[in-house]
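Customer ticket, subject: "Can you confirm the structure for LysM peptidoglycan-binding domain-containing protein?"

Message body: Hello, I'm evaluating your service for our small team and ran a test protein. I'd like someone to confirm that this is what the system normally returns, since I don't have a reference to compare against.
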Amino acid sequence: MKSKMQRPVLVSLLLFLGWALMTTGQAVAAENRISQDVQYEAGFYYTVQEGDTLWDLSQRFSDSPWQWPDLWRENQQIPNPHWIYPGERIRLFRKSDQHHTETTIAAPPETREEAAAPPAVDFVYPFIDRVGFIRKPSVQPVGVIFKSFDDRKLIGEEDLVYIRHPESGQQNAFLPGTRFTVYQTKRPNNDRDAQRAYGEQHYLLGIVEVVKQEEGYVTGKVVESFRAIGVGDLLMPYEPLPPEMAVVESTTGIEARIIAGEEQTRIMGDHFVAFIDKGADDRIVPGQVYDIFDEPTTRALGRGATLAPVNIGSLVVLRAEKNTATVLINASKRTIEAGHLVLAP
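Agent reply: Thanks for trying us out. I re-ran your input and got the following:
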């Protein structure tokens, strides 16, 4: 009789131990996921806080908790949608009825308690080192590639190059192990007026590391190649930028224009890098999100008459110069072109 009574207790104990081991295993797996050096795709990310669930996050960022399966599919690193842990990063998805990811929460009804702060959202762009800029005056080059090993026309990663520094006294800047960004300068959209107004486009090609100093020149090795490098390309000091940036409030009242695309294509779309004609002096900072508008014209209301602007996309600021900024078009409803209007959401 006693053994029969003990059997249910033993079964319950075994079930509890199994559940505890499973939970511990999931927690350890989550800690491993958090601690790993994950290579994130470009996009908006939220860091999980205590008490968060995919259901709640779906409600917060898409206005519908029932879209949590879409949020789970966007984050394949999560094996079980019912178990997410503080410190994990969740990649957010765009709302189906909007053109960009919302980064703020609708204000709740007034209560006696202080309103909760909006959730902290980051934008991650892993290719930030290859993002160029428009600057006036242009960067003064500290060196130039005058020859490649084996006289290769197209230089890539692991290739050796020979660098001449144009000014005497530059030897200390070229110590072995020092890195430089390789670049070219261009007219934005090959437009003289844009060049006079905003400065030259600095088109980044790769990163070179000094291997050895010689008399009058240095030998370097290409450690990263973003685009084809050639003889005559210039060097500037390498200044790494963080690929993660906090999404911050946009500057109210901004009215900017797209100057050009980085690759100087006539039309642009999702994931294209471009430049706008407002910068740090206009309180433009990395992590801000702005909307893109087209301004249709019509002859029905008179020659050159324009209709109300139409929202056609959104962009994220990646870096800001004094009077210009480099941006990423993160969503587009139609083709984006130079001259399109940029406004705060």
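A couple of notes from the result: The longest helix spans residues 2-35. The longest strand covers residues 200-214. Feel free to reply with more questions.
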